[in-house]
Amino acid sequence: MTPRITLAVAARVLTQLRRDHRTLAMLLVLPCLLITLLWWMYDATGGTLFDRVGPALLAMFPFIVMFLVTSVTTLRERSSGTLERLLAMPMGKLDFLLGYALAFGVVAAVQSVLAVSIAVGLLGLEVQGPVWLLTLVAVADAVLGTALGLFVSAFARTEFQAVQFMPALVIPQILLCGLFVPRDLLPDVLSAVSDVLPLSYAVNAMQTLTRTSATGDVWRDLAVVAGFAVTMLCLGAATLRRRTP
Predict the structure, then answer these.
(1) pLDDT value at position 21?
(2) Ranges for the ABC transmembrane type-2 domain (predicted)?
(3) Confidence category of residue 219, pLDDT binned at 50, 70, 90
(4) Which of 58, 94, 191, 200 has the smallest count of CB within 10 Å of its CB?
């Protein structure tokens, strides 16, 4: 891995995103709109349900959006032959993936700051822990979605196939992360599966920050999410193909 090449790849991706207004709007605006929409729905009931589900939503939406955009974008690079031309230069697969992860990580940071600012500042989500730590968890979760998207793009031949990985890899994590049923109330088998899914730890960290000011468990969950992201990037580098057959 060469830092100069990695930064060059990141700069190239950021330049492309800056010119792609639709994708940029999806990355930055869509999570904020979805969180606001759900707040509006729950606020109409006159209850405090948003305070219970809001933390999980802050973990889920960036994860989902970054997974979709990254997997499709990376596949497009390979199917168009751009990846093959890039790898013909003195650039390794890890340079390519880390460059993409860095670029989308910058976008994820902006996305998370916007989403957390709206949820806490405008929509009144109550947070007991540090807001900056809540934002950091959201950023780590978005980077996890990026890393997972980079990984699964190696196994798809078309953009439609890339999207098809969502029901297999993303939706089960949403169902078992504790949003619908507390994880300690799940059947033993499902609870064990939930324990090895990274989104569960991101949601748990978010929920902890809204219940208590203690941050010990949050740092542990954050380390797990970061570990999954690094693992996905390494696996992505090992399985990345130059072009789609």
Answers:
(1) 85
(2) 18-243
(3) very high
(4) 191
What DSSP state is assigned to residue 119? I
Q: Identify the CA nearest to 164 among candidates 175, 155, 177, 174.
A: 155
Q: How far apart are CA 46 and CA 31, in angstroms?
A: 23
Looking at residue 179, what DSSP letter applies?
Answer: S
Token pair 């196939």 is at which residue? 161
Q: How far apart are the first and last CA of the chain?
A: 26
Residue 118: φ, ψ to 5°: -70, -45
The pTM of this model reads: 0.86
| Environment class of 88 (CB within 10 Å of its CB; exposed 0-12, middle 13-18, buried 19+) | exposed
- Residue 199 to residues 36, 145, 192, Cα–Cα distance (Å): 21, 9, 14
Instruction: Give the pLDDT of residue 242.
Output: 54
CA 172 – CA 135 distance, rounded (Å): 24
Q: Where are the alpha helices (DSSP H) in the chain?
A: 3-19, 21-28, 30-43, 49-79, 82-87, 93-116, 131-152, 159-169, 171-176, 188-194, 198-211, 216-239
Which residue type does 129 have?
G
How many whole angstroms separate alpha carbon 101 and alpha carbon 103?
6
Q: Please state at what angle helix 49-79 crosses helix 131-152, rounded to 10 degrees.
A: 30
